[in-house]
Amino acid sequence: MIDGNPLPGVPSVESPFFEQLFDASDPLYPLAKSLHDDGYAVLDFPDDEFPAVAEAITSSLHDRYDWARWHAGGADLRVQDAWQWNPAVRRVACNPTVIDLLSRLYGRRAFPFQTLNFPVGSQQHVHTDAVHFSSRPERFMCGVWVALEDVGPDQGPLVYYPASHRLPIYTREHIERAYFREEGSSQGVFEPLWRRLIEAHGLERRTFAPRRGQALIWAANLLHGGDVHHDRRRTRWSQVTHYYFEDCVYYTPLSSNEPRGEIFHREPPNIALGAKVHNRYLGYKVDPVAAAKPLDFGSRIIPVPHGLPAFDPAGYLKHNPDVAAAGVDPAQHYDLYGRHEQRRWYD
């Protein structure tokens, strides 16, 4: 990388000065160019023992999923933040070569803050992570998806739209849908917009059906999702690790109402260090409590699907020991993640 960046508040791979920041003779250049042009890059995961690591993950997590519900036609299965108790998941998330690579690509030090482990295809509607995981300056977030087994076209491969990361980051103000606690934090409010953007810009739909050990890096604003998992007799084991970058403010636009001062700030963990990362802006520490009024999940009724009993925080922790072990607020976790993962809180 060439010294001298006139826009240090923009990820290097997304900078308008890209060709001045990356030397074409650098072995890193092809990956950087792919991220710059298309919003994603493919690489072989840099771990010589990856087959054994993948086997350790799949065997240890197998019994944590509701397979009966899946085979009966249920939604996707996932375990969030298994890094907290699974050494193999943590090893993938904290791979030092990947962290160094992302740090060079983005121009700030990367750190992993969340893992998701899927045994089947997510079948998730196309979306941009920027509504879920955002930062100030914006776009200092990325995801790395790695296949833990060979993936075929009937196993719910990834779906993505090259160059969609170049679109503006649209938030609630752009669709005139302020955040109301009663509606929860579903990305569904943005899905009609995303479909219209794909149509309006003629974006090309592609799928990623890799062999075991292939990984996909994607930019924060890349439109991506999961294809239909047609063959439910077959699995599609994979791990997603989300990365933030140092010296940023971290927040969730989907759950925020910024003009009213209701900003859902995050204090993400640095998985590699086992410590929370403080919000920083232009070198100054930002106190989320002092900067804005946090959303209070404990003082409201949590909406649940029709026909189910009222949300019970204690029951949620009982049925979801990973949430209990993480020490997070059960209502907040359900509102942000559990409802989409169809997690239980009742006997």
How would you portray this structure in words?
This protein has 12 helices and 15 strands. It is α+β, with helices and mostly antiparallel strands and 347 residues long. It folds into 2 domains: 27-295, q2cbj1_9rhob like domain (Jelly Rolls, Sandwich), CATH 2.60.120.620; 306-347, no CATH class. The strands form 5 sheets. Strands 1-8-5-10-3-2 form a 6-stranded antiparallel beta sheet. Helix 3 (50-61) crosses helix 5 (87-93). The termini are far apart. Residues 291-295 have low confidence and may be disordered.
- Beta content: 15-25%
- Low-pLDDT ranges: 291-295
Helix-residue proportion: 25-40%
**How many beta-strand elements?**
15
Largest sheet, strands/sense/barrel: 6 strands, antiparallel
Strand order across the largest sheet:
1-8-5-10-3-2
Indicate the overall shape.
Answer: globular
Order of helices and strands: HHEHHEHHEEEEHHEEEEEEEEEHHHH
Terminal-residue CA separation:
56 Å
